[in-house]
Automatic annotation (TrEMBL):
<feature type="domain" description="Peptidase S33 tripeptidyl aminopeptidase-like C-terminal">
    <location>
        <begin position="458"/>
        <end position="556"/>
    </location>
</feature>
<keyword id="KW-0378">Hydrolase</keyword>
<dbReference type="InterPro" id="IPR013595">
    <property type="entry name" value="Pept_S33_TAP-like_C"/>
</dbReference>
<feature type="transmembrane region" description="Helical">
    <location>
        <begin position="21"/>
        <end position="44"/>
    </location>
</feature>
<dbReference type="InterPro" id="IPR051601">
    <property type="entry name" value="Serine_prot/Carboxylest_S33"/>
</dbReference>
<dbReference type="InterPro" id="IPR029058">
    <property type="entry name" value="AB_hydrolase_fold"/>
</dbReference>
<dbReference type="Pfam" id="PF08386">
    <property type="entry name" value="Abhydrolase_4"/>
</dbReference>
<keyword id="KW-0472">Membrane</keyword>
<keyword id="KW-0732">Signal</keyword>
<protein>
    <submittedName>
        <fullName>Alpha/beta hydrolase</fullName>
    </submittedName>
</protein>
<dbReference type="GO" id="GO:0016787">
    <property type="term" value="F:hydrolase activity"/>
</dbReference>
<comment type="similarity">
    <text>Belongs to the peptidase S33 family.</text>
</comment>
<keyword id="KW-1133">Transmembrane helix</keyword>
<keyword id="KW-0812">Transmembrane</keyword>
Length: 557
């Protein structure tokens, strides 16, 4: 998935000639030197790292003291502490909430202030407390406050040593949430996996028409984003979010930031270590974003992982679940039958009891289930229902087309919750701000065959990533990819051998790019190894609690 890249001479002195003129010059020079030294001494006391502002900034050294001198006032979160399905009394009762002020634009603080939502679960270990541990749960777009509440049950060991901190980054959750959808307007663009031609149409011509249509939809959506959230859009990239983390560190009273980032959170953590190497404490990054991969290479890498994941699922299906598996023979023959079931939906979606199973829903069902072994039983059963009984409902449900009762799912927005499209809007805003890539429909179509070759069913989904930033206001840049972190301590980087979202090779490239990475590999499949492997959890927890780092290249089963 996807950060902002960022980028006075003394006047001559005229001394009057005559007696004392030389001393006047000397005294003046000494006075200037004294002023310069005093300014340098004062700058050294400021609690933030040097920052190179954009070239259009009128303030080469913005005064950020008001932000770095703030303290957090923790209060009960109340009934709206978290939103959606994680609003549970057990989570909210132990959680405390606060608001953090940060500048909209770090290079020009006078432009305005943002107020960010922060949450805390206090350390349970008493005198053994090590400080705060800030979580970056991924996305971009998800609420860190919500995610911490949802996952607090599995973080008991870490809570013995740390105050656990959640943050809704700027533009997400309750931190000035972005929206790109007028409540009276249409829903966000939904990418389709169906790039084949209906009936007797030419597949190439049909794909070209579809991609042009989709590009126009994205461009229209970008205009809506600018209209509804325009003032925020230039300032939601990863480099600004990383600077917010440093303001948070100071407000928490920590000399160094301890951090656990997953997926996009790994990108955010790497950018922080680059910007603030001497404020970097114990860092764990899990599900590592590749800083060297552009949009096209990322789509191709994910397509290869998708194909690998499908074959792993089919291998397991054939070997261990013969009576339950709808396929027989070799993995190749099983995959061929899976493709035939997918191809049969081209232009002929199946409607059943309020749900529609088309190629898009079929693809999402696979993508959402094939990399989580806990979902394999449900996926096998759904495919068996489709292939053996022609019952499309179970697979449609897995693909998100219907809820348990057969009706389409629409998340209800309660009072105080962010807009329904906030996660989508924030994800799009960060990704488009963090990338200079802008593909035309023709360029996207040229990439499509390689995606299909890599993964015939799931590969075509990647082509839509190429078009997502069409018409985005303000453009983007790639400066976040410079993640050199000289002076930072070693960072533990955890990767899964087969990961459909952040392929394993990205971890090694991130380690090399930062210069301080130590890679631990979980020899399994799925995105985010900490939740999948007890071995990984033990090593990560031990590092965060004791500082004992696994050897580079270590593995877990």
């Amino acid at each position: 998935m996807g950060p902002v890249r960022s980028r006075s001479p003394l006047s001559g002195m005229l001394a009057r000639r005559g007696p004392g003129g030389v001393w006047i010059i000397v005294l003046a020079v000494l006075a200037v030197v004294a002023l310069v030294l005093a300014a340098l001494a004062y700058a050294a006391t400021l609690p933030y790292a040097p920052y190179d502002p954009p070239s259009d900034s009128r303030d080469p050294r913005p005064d950020l003291r008001r932000y770095y001198q703030q303290t957090l006032s923790w209060t009960h979160c109340g009934r709206h502490g978290v939103s959606g399905g994680v609003r549970t009394p057990a989570a909210v009762s132990a959680m405390r909430c606060a608001r953090l002020k940060v500048p909209l634009d770090y290079s020009a603080p006078a432009k305005g202030t943002l107020t960010l939502a922060v949450s805390r679960f206090g350390a349970s270990g008493g005198r053994h407390r090590l400080g705060s541990l800030v979580f970056g749960f991924g996305g971009p777009g998800g609420s860190g406050v919500d995610q911490l509440a949802a996952h607090i049950g599995g973080l008991a060991r870490l809570r013995q040593s740390y105050d656990l901190i959640g943050l809704d980054p700027r533009g997400w959750g309750r931190s000035h949430p972005l929206t790109c959808t007028d409540p009276r307007g249409a829903a966000p663009v939904a990418a389709s996996a169906d790039t084949a031609a209906p009936g007797d149409a030419d597949p190439v011509d049909d794909a070209a028409v579809q991609l042009r249509t989709e590009a126009q939809q994205y461009a229209d959506h970008a205009r809506d984003c600018a209209r509804l959230s325009g003032p925020m859009l230039p300032y939601v990239g990863t480099t600004n979010i990383a600077r917010d983390l440093d303001v948070l560190r100071q407000a928490l009273g920590d000399r160094k930031l301890n951090y656990f980032g997953t997926s996009y959170g790994s990108q955010l953590g790497a950018v922080y270590a680059h910007q603030f190497p001497h404020h970097t404490g114990r860092f764990v990054l899990d599900g590592i974003v590749d800083p060297t991969s552009d949009t096209k290479r990322t789509a191709l890498a994910r397509a290869n992982e998708d194909e690998r994941g499908i074959r792993d699922f089919l291998t397991d299906c054939l070997r261990r679940h013969g009576a339950e598996c709808p396929f027989h023979g070799t993995v190749d023959t099983a995959e061929a039958r899976l493709r035939r079931a997918y191809d049969a939906l081209d232009g002929h979606p199946l409607a059943v009891r309020g749900a529609v199973l088309d190629q898009q829903t079929f693809s999402h069902a696979l993508a959402d289930s094939v990399f989580d072994q806990g979902e394999w039983h449900a996926l096998r059963s759904a495919l068996r229902a489709l292939v053996i009984r022609r019952d499309a409902l179970p697979l449609a449900r897995l693909g998100g087309a219907t809820g348990p009762g057969g009706a389409g799912v629409t998340r209800r927005v309660a009072a105080g919750d962010p807009p329904a499209d906030n996660a989508y809007a924030a994800s799009l805003a960060v990704r488009c701000r963090d990338s200079a890539d802008r593909y035309t429909p023709q360029e996207a179509q040229a990439v499509l065959p390689s995606l299909v070759r890599a993964a015939p069913i799931l590969g075509p989904l990647g082509v839509h990533e190429l078009l997502a930033c069409t018409g985005w206001v303000g453009g983007g840049d790639d400066s976040w990819r410079d993640v050199r972190a000289g002076g930072a301590p070693h960072i533990l980087m955890v990767a899964t051998a087969t990961d459909p979202v952040t392929p394993h090779g990205g971890a090694r490239r991130m380690a090399e790019a930062t210069g301080v990475g130590v890679v631990l590999t979980y020899r399994g499949q799925g995105h985010g190894a900490y939740r999948l492997s007890e071995c990984v959890r033990q090593r990560v927890d031990r590092f965060l609690r004791t500082g004992l780092m696994p050897a580079d290249g270590s593995t877990c089963d």
